[in-house]
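Form P-L/3: holo structure prediction, ligand 6-O-phosphono-beta-D-glucopyranose.
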Amino acid sequence: MTTALEAPLVNPLAAGLPSEAVPQPLTVVIFGATGDLSHRKLLPALYSLAAGHMLPPHFAVVGVARREQEHEDFRSDMRQAVGSFGDQGLSDAVWDSFAQSLHFCQGQFQDPHSYRALKRELDSLKERAGTCGNVLYYLATPPQFDADIVENLHAAGLLTGSASETPWTRIIFEKPFGHDLDSARELNRRIHEHLREDQIYRIDHYLGKETVQNIMAVRFANGILEPLWSRNYVDNIQITAAEAIGVENRASYYEGAGALRDMVQSHLLQVFSLVAMEPPVSWSPKAIHDEKVKVLQAMTRVRGGEVDHQAVRGQYGPGWVGGKPVAGYRQEQGVSPESNVDTFAALKLCVDSWRWAGVPIYLRTGKRLPRRATEVTLTFKSPPQMLFNRFSGPVQDDVLTMRIQPDEGVTLTLNSKVPGQGFQIQPVHLDFLYGATFSGHVPEAYERLLLDAMRGDSTLFTRTDEVEEGWDVIQGILDRWAETPVDFPNYPAGSWGPPASDELIQTDGRQWRNP
Ligand code: BG6
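OUTPUT (holo model):
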């Protein structure tokens, strides 16, 4: 006779799941389970998947962290996290069922004994929860532990299986993946000693955003745009990722990173590669990664003195954001009062390819800018003949804007005649707003990415060569900035960055499009 305690742990929330969408039974092991990322993103995302009936019936989560605690303490801490950071509210019924799948295993990332304890927990869950031995590891840990954790998992016999044959093993690596080109290569080399590439899921959460995935839909589900999508019609491409927040409580990480590493190497180059890539030959992960990597390979490398003309760095001083006074970066908690870390970066790059040769690519990101807004714009070339200038003054160029966040949507700005007796021309907007068109729950980036990794779909993760090419694109700029002096702070919080950022684009006779 089986007692209630011995009965397999089945997740009743999975009832009615569409079979093709259900991941196979598995355990998700989160290293760094008591950290910020777990609280803010991972547990809320897993809970949301549970609430949406997207988890398999045989499912478990094992949180690994240094601090000693009981399963129940872990569960109540995670319940609080989901309540505070989840976007859907917390239902007791859903939580009670989901909480049964949460387990805790105390462990030091560099201690081999901890991995043996983890192995015992996983073996036991295989029987009790019916997880079939499939394991998805999530390294929500400081990047310097990545390779050591992989080596310890290997030594403890915890990396058995492949990426797809059961029981399978996959690992999600949080960003940043490396600190520069050399360290990224070294990390790839070390983890490839124990893992095949198809077991490695390097996360870039921007790829999990609906609006970033929609870049591919806008491009490849609409025949009308493709003929325009090239140097023949596009004058320039801009990507701005503006944040109103400052460094918050992440100084210990950010002091070793800066805006160029933190945002450009990963998010902005990933978004750009989707904007600029050739149509993939199929919807397979390989076909898509192949095209993205070609874009990165074709981007010009800026080196030495060229950097001074094509890249601008900034650091915020005290100022005002959202009507409130805010501290400068050097006054933030945990930041050195002499810090030379960039909180703003603006670049002008080019892609030496048949499609994009000669089209300037302007990328810009910063903290403590006037508002949070990420968008991609393609500005089209002017018509060859300006018929209307004498009635209206200069007519503005057409612009396609893809708003990644907030006010998610796509806008095509065209020129139109102003009604009346004259012939005045004015820009008008053809607008698609997600909120006005689609209703229902929009999955948060981590929900999408966790589910994809559970299903073994690596399309929205980055491959070895993509990560290394991304570092290579910015390496010359990192090197130059490391060796040249800088006068920081050089922009007040709440402004659009240092004046040199405007000069960078104005010397080309263009303007930033401020969202
Ligand atoms: C992270 C960066 O990857 O992305 C942060 O480390 C940044 O510094 C964040 O604030 C921005 O993400 P989002 O989704 O808020 O645009």
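COMMENT: The CA atoms of residues 315 and 343 lie 5 Å apart.
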